Amino acid sequence: MSIFPTLTNKTYVVMGIANKRSIAWAIAKTLDEAGAKLVLTYAAERFKSGLESLASELKQEAILLECDVTNDEAIDSTFRSIHEQAGEIQGIAHSIAFADKEALRGEFSEMTRGQFAQALDISAYSLTAVVKAAKPYFAQDASVITLTYLGGERVVPNYNLMGVAKAALDSSVKYLANEYGPHGVRVNAISAGPIRTLSAKGVGDFNSILSELEQKAPLRRNVSAEEVASTGLFLLSGMGSGVTGEVIHVDSGYHIL
Ligand code: NDP
Ligand code: KAL
């Protein structure tokens, strides 16, 4: 008997696919493999055609919707539309973060008030905004995941204001888990090790972070987006029932050092 969960006829929303390297894309492929009905959201019209060609690789036909998470009305109308087109929502993968590149190098305190507010808005508040908008449409045992990073727990050079945003995100996961638990909705985070994606490109000293993990982490290797996605499948499916308010590190064990 296979223990691979079956998600046939269950609707999952995946937010944050920029391209084929995105962690969200690995999550979408894994959910698709498990038979889920997928809704993929993108930030702006210019990303639509790229996502359409990626989505054509999926087994099931996905619904594509624009959703800029800085806009409350856009979030509300996206979730209304998801409900109209796909019924109740079994789960959401929130894989979205942004900070001004200029603030992701050098001194932490050199950032501006505006850079700080934008990073916290897109990378932390958006999780709550999305959960709030989905509330009327959640299935009774729905599950939400978000992606976080170790730089929210301890100082990692150059991560700067994103570290503060991830700390806020991790804390939001706990408050949301407590509030939504009585409704049967679980909320968890995956803390991923460094993975070469568009976001990781050209920021900080990414290569040295990859090689430090390879040399020191218990597993002595880096992790793949697919490994993050299989933990995502566990949390988003019934296999993770009983787990909420948790941060699971998928980082070869680096965080224990
Ligand atoms: P990607 O660059 O592939 O994904 C980041 C996504 O954020 C993009 O799809 C981007 O959308 C989206 N986004 C930014 N601003 C907005 C907005 N206003 N509205 C909607 N979407 C927006 O990188 P990753 O896959 O690496 O990142 C996904 C998550 O994983 C992030 O939370 C990141 O912090 C986290 N993470 C990544 C790690 C890594 O090493 N890569 C390690 C640990 C955590 P668009 O392209 O359409 O603008
Ligand atoms: C310590 C690490 C090295 C890198 C330092 C900071 C990384 C911050 C992540 C943040 C999400 C990156 C950006 O916001 C980049 C942005 O300013 C420019 N890029 C874009 O606009 C592209 C086109 C779009 C698609 O990107 C976004 N985000 O919209 C952290 C490493 C080791 C681990 C990482 C990369 C963690 C993480 O949180 O992503």
Automatic annotation (TrEMBL):
Claim: NAD is one of the keywords in the record: yes
Domain of life: Bacteria
Disulfide bond as UniProt keyword: no
CDD domains listed in its UniProt record: ENR_SDR
An example Gene Ontology molecular-function term: enoyl-[acyl-carrier-protein] reductase (NADH) activity
Residues reported to bind NAD(+): G16, S22, I23, D68, V69, I96, K166, I195, R196, T197, L198, S199
Coiled coil region boundaries: none
Active site positions, chain numbering: Y149 (proton acceptor), Y159 (proton acceptor)
Root EC class: oxidoreductase
Family indicated by similarity: Belongs to the short-chain dehydrogenases/reductases (SDR) family. FabI subfamily.
Record-given protein name: Enoyl-[acyl-carrier-protein] reductase [NADH]
Organism: Exiguobacterium sp. (strain ATCC BAA-1283 / AT1b)
